Amino acid sequence: MIRPDLPPDHWPADPAPWDYPSVDLRPADRPPVDLLLAMDLPPVELASGRGAIRTADVVAAASPSNAPVSRGAAPSEAAYALAAAVLGLLERGSATLATCESLTGGLLGATLTSVPGASAVFRGGLITYATDLKHTLARVDPGELARDGAVAPSTALAMAAGAREVCAADWGVAVTGVAGPDPQEGHSAGTVFIAVADGSGAAVRQYRLDGDRHTIRTRTVEAALRQLTEAYRSR
User: Fold this and answer.
1) CB under 8 Å, gap of 24 or more: what pairs does 179-184 form?
2) pLDDT on residue 75
3) 79 Cβ neighbours under 8 A, 6+ residues apart
4) CA nearest 97: which of 126, 134, 140, 128?
5) Exposure pattern of 168-200 as b/e (b: 16+ CB <10 Å)?
6) Does residue 188 have a pLDDT over 80?
7) Measured by CB atoms within 10 angstroms of the end CB, which terminus of the chain is less buried, N or C?
8) Closest Cα to residue 196, out of 230, 166, 165, 220?
9) Where on the phi/psi map is residue 32: left (φ > 0), alpha (ψ -120 to 50), or beta?
10) Which residues lie closer than 8 Å to 213 by C-beta, 6 or more apart?
């Protein structure tokens, strides 16, 4: 049973001490940063539906967010709450979920499994960080990968469908994009594609996220969970 009433406050704020001395690489005149404020941007709907892919030339406008981003191994409070909520929805509908992740490197799956009782819904996930693994693990067509690249709406759609198929789940959610700081395949840092698939079709959205590498990855997880929730409720 999903327990959304258990927040992740049992996690330690700092890692356990080690037996050897640590080295602080921060400049002496700068204090440690406990919270990071980020820009969270609305999605751009790129494709949807029962087979066909629709594209739209819409650029998301920036909107500020005051939600703090966790700097440790634990998911952000927002991500935990979203994960608990969507797992509860899926459990009540007797539905299962699988993930396929690129830029987040397992953070989405880790967030889902941080919720007690997640095993009632979450089947498992694929971490396809390298481009070739998107084919060998998630069954993305190699011709499409060569043509469109790893950071593309078609790739995200295929990854979500592949996660469903490989993990034998009712729903699949996939994330691919550029965490930064350097651009990739002509895409700037913060460009993210998130796809959600079920047995009737799939949809993908483009996001443009602000912040450093950590913030972009965290915001990607939060956006994926929101998008999955919307897709499930509108089915």
Assistant:
1) 179/103, 179/213, 179/216, 179/217, 179/220, 180/212, 180/213, 180/216, 181/212, 181/213, 184/150, 184/151
2) 87
3) 111, 218, 221, 222, 225
4) 126
5) ebbbbbbbbbbbbeeebeebebbbbbbbbbbee
6) yes
7) N
8) 230
9) beta
10) 179, 180, 181, 189
Cis previous bond, 32, omega within 30: no
φ, ψ (nearest 5 deg) of residue 215: -65, -40
Host H or E run for residue 41: none
Task: Tell me the backbone φ, ψ of residue 138, rounded to 5 degrees.
Answer: -95, 0
pLDDT tens readout for residues 189-218: 999 999 999 999 999 999 999 999 999 999
CA distance linking residue 61 with residue 178, whole number of Å = 18
Summarised one tens digit per residue, pLDDT across range 25-42 is: 333 443 333 333 333 444
Residue 133 has which token pair? Answer: 């693994």
**What distance in Å separates the CA atoms of residue 86 and residue 107, rounded to the nearest whole number?**
16
DSSP character for 186? Answer: T
Residue 51 pLDDT greater than 70, yes or no:
no
Q: How far apart are CA 169 and CA 151, in angstroms?
A: 24
Please report which residue ranges of the chain form alpha helices under DSSP H: 77-92, 107-113, 131-136, 142-148, 153-167, 213-233
